[in-house]
Amino acid sequence: MPIIDLANPTRFLSLAERALPWLAGTTAIAFAIGLNLAWTAPDDYQQGATVKIMFIHVPSAWLAMGCWALMSIAALGTLVWRHPLADVAAKAAAPIGAALTLLCLVTGSLWGRPMWGAYWVWDARLTSVLVLFLMYLGVIALWRTVDDPARAGRAVAILTLVGAINLPIIKWSVDWWNTLHQPASVVRLGGAAIHPTILWPLLMMALAFVLLFVTLHLAAMRNEILRRRVRTLMLMQAQAAPGSGA
Amino acid sequence: MRLEGRDLACIRGGREVFAGVGFAAAGGEALVVTGRNGTGKSSLLRMIAGFVRVAAGRLDLEGGAPEHTLAEQAHYLGHQDALKPSLTAMENLSFWSSYLGSGQEVQEVEAPMAALAAVGLEAVAGFPAAYLSAGQRRRLSIARLVAVKRPIWLLDEPTTALDRPAQERLSELMGAHLAGGGLIVAAAHGAIGLERAKELHLGDDA
Amino acid sequence: MTALSALFVRDIKLAVRVGGGAGIGVLFFLIVVTLTPFAIGPDLNLLGRIGPAILWLGALLASLLTLDRLLTADAEDGSLDLILTGGTPLELAVAVKALAQWLTTGLPLVIATPFFGLLLNLDLRTSTAVALTLLAGTPALTFIGLIGAALAVSLRRGGLLLAVLVLPLTVPVLIFGVAASNAAIVGPLPFGTPFTILCALTLVAMVLGTFAAGTALRHAME
Fold first, then answer.
1. Which of A120-124, A218-222, B127-131, C152-156 ranks highest by mean pLDDT?
2. What ipTM describes this predicted complex?
3. A–B: how many Cβ contacts below 8 A?
4. Residue A242: its chain B contacts at CB < 8 A?
5. Interface probe, candidates C121, C122, C123, C126, chain A, greatest A C-beta count within 10 A
6. With CB atoms 3.0 to 4.6 Å apart as the test, which of A72, A159, A246, B9 could cross-link to B55 if both were Cys?
7. Taking the CA atoms of chain A, what radius of gyration do you get in angstroms?
């Protein structure tokens, strides 16, 4: 099927209907394998069993950022190519992205409690993820404020693209800001090479999260298309009802 | 029941809108207020409804329910429709019928669905008011007058945005209200479908 | 359904439907809490010490800035006219609107406070104390803001002017709110003293705000 056919929401719907059960099944299998691997992975010699929070925390952090990237591409689709599915994709992605970011923050703070002695420190990483979370919530609030999806779509697209430019700047400035004030930096994963016994479960969990994201996103897009159809039908019906003429 | 205004004057924003206006209407009678723009038709209606202070003169209601004020016995249908776009037509109407009808132990309160049917809106009862056209919103406002029985109707250009069938429907509703001993004061530019109405002309261009 | 409960239910519905303001207040609160450490630096000890004050400031701004449209929206679409013809005293109607507003914007702030306290390195006991003072104090903020919301109708303006008018009036609530929170952490005052005064302020604000707003609205209608 040529890609242009997918632009047609009806074609998209039928494809989504067929793909969703398979995706859901694959996601479940991937999670079963991933969680099993994570369960059997060795404990860290310093951190003990708490290190296993990483298997949830890191994939959700990756996807939280990936989701904004996806929304940015969708925003370009809305503004530049005026693709009919672009703002549907953007709208469906925002709550999932926000949920993943929240998951990342919550697991992070649960992990931080035994590591740093506090649920939250104003570390550069954490802070920029918190800002990302705030931006997701802003986008969702904007979607909820405007009733007309076409108008809301354009406003959100602009906000998303500005956010995409702003996020790296926030990241750098926070890094810079933070090194000024907090000399005791927290050693995190990035530094040392990861042992394969941890790397493989992590990659498996990442795959499971990606599949979960695709499944949820597809289902949310389908719901959004149906919701818009219901809205259009109601508008048409209201106009056809007696007494609509001015 | 008899509504009487004597030597009424209205001052808004330091400017005298009208002065020396008198009128009288009894139950079963309709009074149509005419006049050019700016002569104070709307102000007179808002004065009867109690939103605008009576600067001079007297406004009396004889024979109404003594425990209620004039405003509480009147329905005011203004230019603004007092509808919330995110609530459905039904929710909008049932809110106003419970809010306005709660003190009405004597007068009956009709079921909102019946009132919607009376203005021909039963098909869109479950739709958000945002989806309705100007004419439908106007009908929904009129349904309020049907849902809660009040003896005095104050109608400011009630036919605005209504098509011919809707105007006829409104005319029937007004006729039924008058036949039941009600009283109508309406501001209008043209005919609004009231036969044998008294006329009060504001302004000095007669 | 009585007139007042109908009005209460309607306002809550409006707040949670599309275009309503519920949730934005909490988001604003979270942003204020997030911005403060950017301004003063990530020193956890310092944050822990001034945390109650930050939470109070954030909640104060969030609960006042969401009041902007409470009465102007009803004035613009003519609902206020009809509310006046309802036979319910205007003061009661306005008070019910303020209660619904508090339930949809003030109470979520109180519920969010313990979570936001974590960001500011407050322990559970302190966070709970701050949440308790906010539970007692935010109704006062809503009812003081109600005066501003009513004035906004007569001035036909809102936004920043509203904040300028109302924020000075909230000073006593802020003082005793923060005092009670701090008393719970360090003392030397017992928690009860400032907390009781805070409760009294709330009761006074409920009466004063209701009548002042009613009077302002009556003048605005003319």
1. A218-222
2. 0.85
3. 47
4. 120, 123, 165
5. C121
6. B9
7. 21
The rounded percent of chain C whose pLDDT value lies above 70 is 95
Q: Which among C9, C20, C76 has the least Cβ separation from residue B86?
A: C20
C188 preceded by a cis bond (ω within 30 of 0): yes
Amino acid A172 reads W
| pTM (2 d.p.) | 0.85
Q: Indicate if the pLDDT at residue A187 is higher than 60.
A: no
Instruction: Delimit the domains of chain C by residue range.
Output: 3-12+21-221
For A48, the 3-state DSSP assignment is: strand
Mean pLDDT of chain B: 83
Domain encompassing residue A139: 10-41+48-181+193-230
pLDDT digits (tens, 9 = 90+) for C168-185: 999 999 999 998 888 887
Does residue B206 lie within any of the structural domains? no
Nearest to C78 among B50, B71, B80 (CB): B80
Domain that holds residue B145: 2-62+70-201
Rounded Cα–Cα distance for residues B33 and C204 (Å): 47
Q: Which chains touch C (3 or more CB pairs under 8 A)?
A: A, B
